[in-house]
Amino acid sequence: MAASGGAYGFVDDGTLVVENGLIVWAGPRTALPSSFEGGTVHDVGGRCITPGFVDPHTHAVYAGSRSNEFELRLRGATYADIARAGGGILATVRATRAASDGELAGASLPRVAALRANGVTTLEIKSGYGLDRETELRMLRVARSLGPAANVRVRTTYLGLHALDPAWSDADAYVDFVCADVLPAVAAERLADAVDAFCESIAFTTEQTARFFEGARALGLAVKLHADQLTDCGGAELAARCGAQSADHLERTSEDGVRELADAGTVAVLLPGAFYYLRESVAPPVAALRAHGVPIALGTDCNPGTSPLVSPLLAMNFACTLFGLTPEEALCGFTRNAARALGLHGEIGTLEAGRKADFVIWDVEHPSALVATIGTNPGAAVVFGGRA
Ligand code: NIG
Ligand code: FE
């Protein structure tokens, strides 16, 4: 069982005590206080228990498919080429706008269920494939509905600056519209916990992003950023300056940017699925993140274009083979640090008294085996709020 302790926080022969959906005690079985004896006992038979995985970065709500783009890229097109030709994000926008709420939920639920089957008990879902006000609000409502439907905890993020809506020719005017029209509607209906933007050479500038973040913060929303994925455009610095909860991707972030993330207490969310799928060559600055003490989280980035991935297990393996994380860092990336990336570190992400009873029972003897294997899912049971 992984709780607090030595490497991995691994506790051999551990015990969890659960009451009313909360962990009330965790530790070695031999240290269990006698006051907790007498309840129903579930013996997991030498299996390993980890916290339920927290996926802090997904775009799991969308309609349509972009497998054709995988083929185009294999024939030499880049992600940016496809985006400029009207594919990429805009292709998913067209399919998402055309889907009814029921169709959108029906297309998205199997992805959330697959994430859960792979150990996820909390996930973040972004909007960003609507671009117009109505579809963005619809996406967030559908995302919220998937929590009860899949029996997981969902946090929603209004990805207000993802791509320029083709109905607008001027990006600055579009940002004005997003800030004046959509953001207040999202906040009034309490549809999002945070906002996000794609700050990139092919998307929005740091100035436009800063303006959007200012509006979001004034409405009490947390801030996250797709930063420095394709170019170093000062995304990490901007995220830090805006007090972002997390800065995500970070492949091209400079050491100065890392230093600013550390000073701001911003979590780095690395997304090895996108790196792998786009066949990127520049990995995020893991050594600098470690040296400056920036907490490293991992996400699947589950999305139709750059990371059609629903397995945190595979993402952890990628993070080790492609980014050089240790298996222990990878597990921490989908548990403790991912909870922090969502501002939920007081509630989930570890197995200790006072946290939600969200955990996974795995048919392995040690958590390192979860990272070291490829394409397996040894999950024996996913427990959410104390219930399997
Ligand atoms: O995190 N970069 C922007 N957003 C997504 C990709 C979205 C898409 O291509 O549909 C990402 O990689
Ligand atoms: Fe993303």
Which labels suit this protein?
eight-stranded parallel sheet; 388 residues; 15 helices; disordered N terminus; single chain; binds N-(iminomethyl)-L-glutamic acid; alpha/beta; binds fe (iii) ion; three-stranded antiparallel sheet
Give an overview in words:
Helices cover 38% and strands 18% of the residues. Strands 4-5-6-7-8-9-10-11 form an 8-stranded parallel sheet. Strands 3-12-13 form a 3-stranded antiparallel sheet, with no helix packed on it. A two-stranded antiparallel ribbon has the order 1-2. The longest helix is centred in the middle third of the chain and has 18 residues, at 133-150. α5 crosses α6 and α12 (312-323) packs across α13. It has 388 residues and is α/β, with parallel strands linked by helices. β7 (194-199), α7 and β8 form a beta-alpha-beta unit. Residues 1-5 have low confidence and may be disordered. It has helices at 67-74, 79-84, 89-98, 101-117, 133-150, 171-188, 206-218, 235-241, 255-264, 272-277, 286-291, 312-323, 327-333, 336-341, 368-372, and strands spanning 14-19, 22-28, 48-51, 53-55, 120-126, 153-161, 194-199, 222-227, 246-249, 267-270, 296-298, 359-362, 379-383. The chain is built from 15 helices and 13 strands. Fe (iii) ion (FE) binds at residues 57, 59, 226, 301, 303.
